[in-house]
Structures
1.
Amino acid sequence: MLEAKSLDLFYGASHCLRGVSLQARPGEIVAVLGRNGVGKSSLLRAIMGLERIRAGAIVWEGADISALAPSERARRGIGYVPQGREIFPFLTVQENLETALAAAPRGSKVDAELFDLFPILRQFLRRRGGDLSGGQQQQLAIARALTTRPRLLILDEPTEGIQPNVIKDIGQVIRLLAKERNMAVILVEQYFEFAQALADRLAIMVRGEVALAGRPDELDEAAVRKLLTV
Ligand SMILES: Nc1ncnc2c1ncn2[C@@H]1O[C@H](COP(=O)(O)OP(=O)(O)O)[C@@H](O)[C@H]1O
Ligand SMILES: [Mg+2]
C-alpha cells in the first residue's frame, strides 16, 4: 500500500502541495482530478521521488521511501508514466522497452506478456517511437513502465490527446492490471467521466490541496464538476 501523508512541496517560495494525503491499496485505482496547475503532476512526481518534499512522508509497503532516489523507488516496485509520455522518438519500440530494464535485475528480458496487453506494440517492435500515433506512444509508455513488474503504477494523464477508441483500450488495461494483477494504481485524469467509470476512489485537488475525496458513488457529482470547470 502507498500512503502519502501530509505532503508539502515548494518551488522556491511557491507553495505547491499543502498537506496532501493520498492512499492506494493493492487492487485499487485512485484518480486525482483538478484544474490545470493545481499540483497533480507535482504530487505524482513527489511520490516517484522526482521532486523533494519539504514535509510529510511517503510510505510504501510499510517503509518510508521519502528520501530514496527515483531509481530506488522503481526497484522497490513503483512504475511511473510521465505526463506527455516521454518515450524516446529515435529508439525503436523494442529499444524503448529495454531502456526500462536498467531498473530490473540483471539479465531480465522484456516480458512477452506485455504484448498481450498491447498487441499493437508486438506488431511495431522495430518501428521508431516517434513514428507511432499518440495513442500508441501512450501504450508504449505504459508498457515500458510495466517492464519492471511494478506493484504500484502511477500514470499522469494517460488519456491526454488520445482518440476515444484508444482511451477505451487504455482504460481496460488499467482495470485489468488492478483487478486481475492486484496492482495499486494512481492516475491523474482530465476527463471526469473516464475517472468516474474507472476509479475506486477520486481525489479532487484545488490549489495544492485535496478538496474532495471519496468513492465516485458517494461524491456529489455537481460539486465535483464545479471544482473541475474553469
Ligand atoms: N519545476 C517547477 N518549477 C516551478 N514551478 C513549477 C514547476 N513545476 C510545476 N510548477 C508550478 O506548480 C504548479 C503545479 O504544477 P503541476 O503539478 O504541473 O500542476 P498540474 O499537473 O495539476 O497541472 C503550477 O503553478 C506550475 O506552474
Ligand atoms: Mg500535470
2.
Amino acid sequence: MRKMAVALLLALLPGLALGAGGGQKLMDAHVDVTDTASLQRGAKYFANYCMGCHSLKYLRYNRMAEDLAIPENVLEQYLLWDGSKPHEPMHTAMRGADATEWFGAAPPDLSLTARRRGADWVFTYLNTFYRDDDTATGVNNLVLPGASMPHVLWRLQGVPEPVYGEAANGERHVTGVKVADGAGALSEEEYHRVTRDITNFLAYAAEPIRAYRERLGVWVLLFIALFTGLAYMLKREFWKDVH
Ligand code: HEC
C-alpha cells in the first residue's frame, strides 16, 4: 500500500511541475533568501517597477525593513514615498476597478505568487515577454499566454522577439524569445540579475520567516542530537544496576 502511494506520488510530480509552467521549460532562478543584498535590491526594484500596480498585502513595511536590514531613513526615502506608514501592509496605490478597466484584469496581489507558481515560474515570466502586435499591450508572454500585464521592464531589457518552432502537429508556435544586442539599457546578464533579485524578493515576501526557519532548523537538529546522546547516557546509568 505504501509502495503504491509512493509510486503514485512519483508519477504525479513531473506533471505538477509541468502544469505550473504550462508545458514551457522554466529557467532556474537560483533563489537564495539569505542573500540580503539581493533582497534589498529586489525590494527597491519592486517599489520602482511593480508597486504601481501590485500589492504585497501580507507584508508590512517595517517587518520587511527589519528582515532586510534596511535603515529607517532609506525606508522612508525610497519605499514610503506614497505617504504610507511603516506599520502598514504594502498596498498599491491603484484601485482594482481602475485596473480592470485599464488592463482587462486586476493586477493580482503578489504576496503568495512565488509559492503558488514557484519562484522559477516568476523568473521565467519576467524573462519571456515577447513582441506581439495582436495584443493590447504589444507583448505576449511564454508562460502566461495572453497576459494583460505590459512588459514594464522593457527599458531595461528591450522588447524580445519571438522565436518560432514547430509543434508536433506541424503548427508554428512561439517556443522561445530572443533579445537583440543593445535593445535595452542592460546586457542580458545584467537583466537576469535584476529579475533574479526581484524573484528572490518575491520568494522572501511569500515566506518572510524562511531564512530564520532554516537557520533555526540547524539548531533544533543539533539540540535533538545532543539530547538523544544525553538521554542514552542517562538510560545506561539507570539500567546499570538492574542488569
Ligand atoms: C501597469 C501595471 C503593472 C505593473 C507595473 C506590473 N504588473 Fe504584473 N501584472 C499586471 C496585470 C494586469 C497582471 C495580470 C495578468 C493576467 O492575468 O493577464 C499581472 C500579473 C503578474 C504576475 C502573474 C501573477 C499570476 O500568478 O498570474 C506576476 C508574477 C507579475 N505580474 C509580476 C510583476 C512584477 C515583478 C512587476 C514589476 C517588475 C510587475 N508585475 C509590474 C500589471 C502590472
